[in-house]
Design brief:
Length: 580
């Protein structure tokens, strides 16, 4: 009986770690691994058109499941194409294993065809990046890479020369039990005691929540009720904390709305829960701040802390709730809820005025209708740029929906590739790609991947023929817009030519019907919506230092935009305020 090859052993270990798909583009140095996948029923090779798509798809899968996902690229240019998607996965704390296949081992360092040094190139976007230089290394090195990705939350890269992958594996290789899930982390008693004292001494406490509150919704609500705290969130905290939240005061930051900014500045204790919120200009510098985070390197790097607590948000709150003194004074909470509702009432008027007759179509209207028609458990993948604004303000989380985007890395073209990874997880779950025309065109080739695998992803294209976020950045800097206009085709015609369902919408009255028809179609579909390029958005508070690196403007071209169904929730929360 023939001995197992290194490539076969590699694939077997991936399967043991729970990997069910390997996204990539084939190439000669990858051939032994791809062939091993072909002969292994428990794992599938997913052929994409660009390796960047492979990395984004794996990252989305990992974010949705919390489990390890994998992608691969052939030597040199093939694996280099992975790098942008891997940066995104790494910054999103998505456990992803990337296989960077390599040139023949005997040629490394000699300027061979397609030679790069992937073990060095990927170090900045990974927790672990190493080269397998002989067959005996492989099992332990791959297992170590998997445990880095899962245990620390992020990317590991294994560089494997094609000739080594094709060699026989050692007969007595060392294998051990794999770590495939992360533990919870409880803070020490001393830190809990200090946090209890800070909370008990404060009259006005605000909670500001990020993605680290995933799985802790009930604990945050119980805590907020006990200390009568308004609850704001960052963009990555939206899907976890906004729904069923009678303490909601909206979102702070560059895409913010409501009273979250005021709530974080008018309290005397701000507690940051599971957020690495990057925009210091939106954080106060004259109130006490405590931060709870499972990653100690995040503690205090955005603001000066009065207390740093290293721990999982859910476990920390479970320790806190029984120990903090219940507060009875709701005045601060009720005042922030009223401010939040008033703020949303003000901006909703701009959104509703003649919106159903406006041509080109308001993108706010598109996002609002999309939110109404989408399934209650839909997965939304959102392109960077103005689509982030519309998703932040119009998509309504409910505990079952998911919203995935390049929220930390900020890459263009992420939505379509991430939708591919999301749809492979569950073909029966609705997956909607909210794509901008610039991002969609950048990796448009992988629309063909949808067709090839008959993936029922629905691409809703916000087509304003411009890079409008960049255009807004130029306006902020006092520059004329230049290089931001796209001469676009009829994208629906391209979808039809590729063998998918396609429809173009130019009038608001046709939008709902077009979306319903696309959602009812069993295969991939694209709805090309021609939207108003002048519909832009501003955050609730603006200062000069906020403009760097992002689009902010108070010019007359900027609209406040609306907030969709969030105003209904704000009105509902006002009914919870006790009346004298």
């Amino acid at each position: 009986m023939a001995r197992q090859k290194v490539a076969e052993q590699f694939v077997d270990i991936l399967v043991r770690a729970g990997v069910r798909r390997l996204y990539g583009v084939v190439g000669d140095s990858l051939n032994p691994v791809v062939d091993a996948v072909r002969r292994t029923p428990a794992i599938e090779w997913i052929q994409v058109r660009h390796e960047e798509t492979a990395a984004f798809a794996a990252g989305a899968e990992a974010q949705l499941t919390g489990r390890l996902a994998a992608c691969a690229g052939s030597c040199g240019p093939g694996n280099l194409h992975l790098i942008n998607g891997l940066y995104d996965a790494h910054r999103s704390m998505a456990p992803v294993l990337a296989l960077a296949s390599h040139i023949p081992s005997g040629e490394i360092g000699l300027g061979y065809f397609q030679e790069t040094h992937p073990d060095q190139l990927f170090r900045e976007c990974s927790h672990y990046s190493e080269l397998i230089s002989n067959p005996g290394q492989m099992p332990r090195l791959l297992q170590t890479a998997i445990q880095h990705a899962v245990g620390r939350g992020g990317v590991s890269v294994v560089s494997l020369p094609g000739d080594i992958a094709d060699q026989p594996a050692p007969e007595k290789s060392i294998e051990h039990a794999l770590v495939t899930a992360r533990p919870t982390v409880r803070p020490g008693d001393e830190e809990i005691d200090k946090l209890v004292r800070l909370i008990d001494e404060a009259e006005r406490v605000t909670l500001f929540c990020g993605s680290g509150t995933a799985g802790a919704h009930s604990e945050v609500m119980e805590f907020a009720e006990r200390i009568k705290s308004p609850v704001g969130h960052a963009l990555r905290g939206k899907e976890w904390i906004q729904y069923d939240n009678p303490y909601d005061v909206g979102m702070s930051g560059l895409l913010g709305y409501g009273a979250a900014y005021e709530a974080t500045h008018e309290c005397d204790l701000l507690i940051l829960l599971g957020t690495d919120f990057p925009y210091q200009a939106f954080l106060p510098d004259d109130v006490k701040i405590a931060q709870v985070d499972v990653r100690p390197e995040n503690l205090g790097r955005r603001s000066k802390l009065d207390l740093a607590v290293w721990g999982d948000v859910r476990e920390t709150l479970r320790c806190l709730v029984p120990r903090v003194r219940a507060k009875t004074d709701r005045r601060f909470l009720d005042r922030m809820l009223k401010k939040h509702a008033d703020a949303l009432e003000g901006v909703v008027k701009a959104y509703t005025r003649k919106v159903e007759k406006h041509i080109p179509i308001h993108p706010e209207f598109v996002a609002s209708v999309l939110d109404e028609l989408a399934d209650d458990d839909a997965v939304f993948t959102v392109d960077t740029g103005m689509c982030n604004v519309w998703a932040a303000r119009y998509l309504s989380p409910n505990g079952r929906r998911r919203i995935i985007g390049s929220f930390s890395h900020g890459s263009m073209a992420n939505a379509l590739p991430q939708a591919i990874g999301a749809q492979f997880l569950d073909r029966d779950r609705q997956v909607i790609s909210m794509s901008g025309d610039g991002g969609f065109a950048m990796l448009m080739g992988d629309f063909l991947t949808l067709v090839q695998y008959d993936l029922p992803v629905k691409v809703v294209l916000f087509n304003n023929s411009s890079l409008s976020m960049v255009e807004l950045e130029m306006l902020v800097a006092g520059l004329p817009s230049y290089g931001t206009t796209n001469r676009n085709p009829d994208f629906s015609a391209i979808a039809k030519a590729a063998g998918a369902y396609g429809v173009r919408v130019e009038k608001p009255k046709h939008l709902a019907g077009a979306l319903k028809d696309a959602f009812g179609h069993k295969g991939p579909a694209l709805v090309d919506v021609v939207t108003d390029p002048n519909a832009l958005s501003i955050p609730p508070k603006i200062s000069a230092e906020m403009v760097t690196g992002f689009a902010l403007s108070a010019s007359k071209m900027v609209l406040d935009g609306g907030v969709g169904r969030m105003v209904q929730m704000a009105r509902s929360n006002l009914r919870n305020i006790p009346r004298p």
